[in-house]
Write a structure and sequence with these properties.
214 residues, 4-stranded antiparallel β-sheet, 24% helix, 26% strand
């Protein structure tokens, strides 16, 4: 079947009691087969169970894995967008405390389409990329939101070095696709960006030119 990210040829990769997965031979993207994906209603019910409180010290510490290195790279007064902020936006609070203006967007909880018409110094999405059902379309949108030289700051667990069969990350039915360093490299080439891998499942893309496919 064709890869949902790059359109290349994908082959069966893994099957368990709940879902089957394919892996692309071109970009190494691993994705749950389409007939295994939840309906929008099932996905919303799962998201409603999340309890991400911006005031919770543990949650703030979790997000700091992305926000701390991002703050070191941002110029004073940089303006950004947190994509997929969920019902309790926290990244914008952490970055706002450091003096940056961050708008919150979520396709379910804060679906203000006007925010997707702007251009930003940075875009963050934490624990969001794995939910992309139409990943190429979604990544194109992410890069199109950047000003030249802007940063995409991503947090999602990578496949590298994990035993997929026992990997807890795939058990969430709303996790539609999974990335490796090879997949991120493909994205960097596709969108003319520089990719930097950081610890703790965080990586940054820096747009090298006006955002768009290469």
């Amino acid at each position: 079947m064709p890869c949902r990210l790059c359109g290349g040829a994908a082959a069966s990769f893994h099957r368990d009691r709940k879902r089957s997965y394919s892996r692309c031979g071109t970009c190494a993207y691993v994705f749950a087969d389409e007939n295994c994906l939840p309906t929008p209603e099932q996905a919303r019910a799962r998201y409603d169970l999340h309890r991400n409180d911006p005031a919770d010290p543990g949650y703030r510490a979790f997000l700091s894995r992305l926000t701390v290195p991002l703050l070191k790279r941002l110029k004073k007064g940089a303006a950004g967008l947190d994509f997929g902020c969920g019902p309790g936006p926290a990244v914008s609070a952490l970055l706002g405390e450091a003096g940056h203006a961050v708008a919150d967007y979520d396709p379910i909880y804060r679906p203000d389409q006007r925010l997707l018409e702007g251009r930003y110094d940075f875009v963050t999405f934490t624990e969001t990329a794995e939910h992309f059902v139409r990943p190429l379309e979604d990544w194109e949108k992410m890069f199109s939101l950047l000003k030249p030289g802007g940063l995409l700051a991503v947090m999602t667990q990578l496949l590298d070095g994990v035993d997929f069969g026992s990997w807890h990350y795939k058990a969430d039915i709303t996790h539609a696709g999974f990335y490796s360093k090879a997949t991120s490299g493909w994205l960097a080439r596709r969108f003319r960006a520089r990719c930097e891998f950081l610890p703790d499942s965080v990586f940054f893309f820096e747009a090298q030119s006006d955002a768009g496919p290469g």
